[in-house]
Amino acid sequence: MKNIILLLLIFCCSRNLQAQSITAGLLPKPLSARGLKKPPVVGLHFFYNDFVTPSLIKASSIGDVLKNKQWNKPQNMEGGFGIDYMQGLTNKIDAVGNINTCWVNYLLPDGTLYGSSNFLLDINAGTHIKLLTDKAVFNPFLITKIGYSAYKNIGGFSLIPGAGIQVNLFEEAFLLTTIEYRTALSKSLSNQLYYSIGIATSFCKKKSKTIALKEYEKPVQPAVIAPVVVAEEIKLITKDIVITVVDEATGLPLEGNVI
């Protein structure tokens, strides 16, 4: 039993590590950020079928069975494996489906054994009505299902009430343990107690939403065009100026004073 539970834990951890791998450099959002409705999950469980205790209860009463310590022990029960599928309908209601397989010497409704071990197939569908949301670590729930059982030439439907506890191990991975009472609706089937423990985890990866960061272009500054300085040639006009100095006495120009 310990080895089976260990294998279930290893299976769950490997599935969850794949689901939590970093995509495009971004970590997946936590459960609270994505909403509390359970995503599609699949699981593997181990179970025990108990046909003896319901037969004793039918013959006397549950009080007498408990008083006389006649409740069947796990080592005397028939075990098997099953597959689960679950998906949230609301935050507190999950749709569930199970397929169970085992080999049993079926206890018939008249209290006699079939006579040899044969393959028993159970297919069930219904709901888990949870007390809390999946954010809670420990979450009790009620079970309402209907199932079909097939064993050799025997087959029929059962109404399945029950209860269980869901343990939120880590991101989208759950440990579930249940007890169910399968009330036969067909005369060919026997009532049955059913105990299970298993692990379920998400099988589809959420697409990581990558946020594209826009690269805003810097505003293009208008090019400053330097004014063109046109060099103009400045021509200096030079003129010779003749200054004549006249002698006042004679009225004649003086020589050698021309500038």
What do you see in this structure?
The chain is mainly beta and 259 residues long. 14% of the residues lie in helices and 39% in strands. The protein is built from four helices and eight strands, in the order ααβααβββββββ. The protein has helices at 2-19, 31-34, 52-59, 62-67; strands at residues 41-50, 78-88, 93-104, 118-130, 138-151, 154-170, 173-184, 192-202. Strand 6 (154-170) and strand 7 form a beta hairpin. The chain starts with a helix and ends in a 57-residue tail after the last strand.
Which helices and strands appear, and what pairs or packs with what?
Elements: H1 2-19, H2 31-34, E1 41-50, H3 52-59, H4 62-67, E2 78-88, E3 93-104, E4 118-130, E5 138-151, E6 154-170, E7 173-184, E8 192-202
Antiparallel strand pairs: 1-2, 1-8, 2-3, 3-4, 4-5, 5-6, 6-7, 7-8
Question: Taking all residues together, what is the mean pLDDT?
Answer: 80
Number of domains: 1
Inertia-based shape: rod-shaped
Major sheet, described briefly? 8 strands, antiparallel, barrel
CATH topology: Porin
Count of DSSP H/I helices: 4
Tally of strands: 8
**What is the C-alpha radius of gyration, as a whole number of Å?**
47 Å
Give the low-pLDDT segments: 15-34, 208-216
Structural class: mainly beta
CATH architecture field: Beta Barrel
Instruction: Give the termini distance in whole angstroms.
Output: 135 Å
Strand order of the largest sheet: 1-2-3-4-5-6-7-8
CATH class (first level) name: Mainly Beta
Quote the beta fraction: 35-45%
Q: Roughly what percent helix?
A: 10-25%
H/E element order: HHEHHEEEEEEE
